[in-house]
Amino acid sequence: MANVLFRGSTYLRWVYLLLGAALVLAFILVDSALVALVASLGLPQIPTVLLDAVLIVAPPVLLGLLPAVREVEGIAVESLLGVRFEERPLGPSRTWPQRRRTALWFCLHLITGGFVGVLSTIVVGLGAVLLAAPFRQPGRHELVPGIDYHVAGSWTDLWMPAAAVAATIALMLLSAPIGALLAYTAPRMLGPTPAERIELLERRTATLAERNRLARELHDSVGHALSLVTLQAAAARRVLATDPAFAETALAAMETSARAALADLDHVLGLLRDDRRPGSETAPQATLSDVARLVEATRAGGITVEVHRSGDLSTLPAAVSREAYRIVQEGLTNAIRHAGRPADEVEVDLSISLDSSGLLLELTNPVAAVPAAEGDSTRGGRGLAGIRERVAVLRGTVEAGLDGGRWRLAVTLPVAVTTKG
């Protein structure tokens, strides 16, 4: 019992119940006006009683059906009852089942709050009188109309303040379980149903998947551009005094790489921007048709890239072509990062072929150290992990490892080859 009295949650829940009592008082005023209006119409007795009952019940029920009531009650329940909902913050009612449950909860809040409010008014009002009783003149005094109490002017009057304190404690002890019952009921009436939880989880999963995809986009595009810029800046610095023409070419390539990275960054940020208006456009995503530009930017840094193509890549589905471009981009980025030698000594072989077995992307390059494995953050980035994630979505296969002293990355994506009519 002592624990209940000294808990802050007990008094916060009592305040929540008093809010319900205040709403009850407001509805009593509204209902009184409506009942008086009906009485002035001179209707028969039985219909009047039924109509009065409807007018008394209708205002709180109709108010509880408003979508915003769920949001307001959710804030009050979380702040005063200490409830934590799965859906945070608790939004307005979006469906009629949610509105019905909210209206039922609102009526429950009014009933329990009205009950505790009446008891609180009695206890606080009479308790103040009883606490002051020993300080009054001896004799009989009126407690409430029709009920008197006697002040003897001696220690025997201490029972009255003791009764006031006991009544206050009893009020808190009664309010605590009522508040606990409401706290237990709130998630079931205001919170999501099992079907709504599944829908909420699906939305969260879709959001996380989209964020993961955008993170891969940023990693691949911006990471590749920064690797090229770093390589080209180092090359330009080494030959700035001896070969100004090459240094100028490297600086121009750095500018091109930086512009491409900014375009990719603008595209991803456009997808992330919440205030993007419907119909607004972002930079188009690159596909395998843009590999030539990617290769030229890599060659501008002094790296030799040999490209072998076969098959009509224009027949690829757009989604596969976009993912394939990012895989090639990440493969070139890994070649730049892990070559461990001057740029002019790095030779990369890139093969892109499309046939009846699917799309094959194969990239080999010299390597000074084995690239970091998936999840090994101490040895590098998440390049291979990102490639595996992309390929897994398309139900393809990935092979990565040393082959004859060179690093080999081979990706197979199963796609249907279509013919143009």
Provide structural commentary.
A hairpin with a 2-residue loop joins strand 4 (347-355) and strand 5. The strands form two sheets. The protein has a five-stranded mixed β-sheet, covered by helices on one side. A two-stranded antiparallel ribbon has the order 1-2. The longest helix has 46 residues, at 194-239. Helix 2 crosses helix 6 (159-189), helix 4 (67-81) packs across helix 5 and helix 10 (318-338) runs antiparallel to helix 11 (383-393). The radius of gyration is 38 Å and the shape is elongated. Mean pLDDT is 81; it is low at 372-380. The protein has eleven helices and seven strands. It is an alpha+beta fold and 421 residues long. It has helices spanning 2-6, 8-39, 45-64, 67-81, 96-132, 159-189, 194-239, 244-272, 291-299, 318-338, 383-393; strands at 139-144, 147-151, 304-310, 347-355, 358-366, 397-403, 406-413.
From the structure above, extract its key features.
421 residues; alpha+beta; five-stranded mixed β-sheet
Care to give the gist of this entry?
By secondary structure, the protein is α+β, with helices and mostly antiparallel strands. The chain has helices at 2-6, 8-39, 45-64, 67-81, 96-132, 159-189, 194-239, 244-272, 291-299, 318-338, 383-393, and strands spanning 139-144, 147-151, 304-310, 347-355, 358-366, 397-403, 406-413.
Write the layout of secondary structure elements.
Blueprint: H1 2-6, H2 8-39, H3 45-64, H4 67-81, H5 96-132, E1 139-144, E2 147-151, H6 159-189, H7 194-239, H8 244-272, H9 291-299, E3 304-310, H10 318-338, E4 347-355, E5 358-366, H11 383-393, E6 397-403, E7 406-413
Parallel strand pairs: 3-4
Antiparallel strand pairs: 1-2, 4-5, 5-7, 6-7
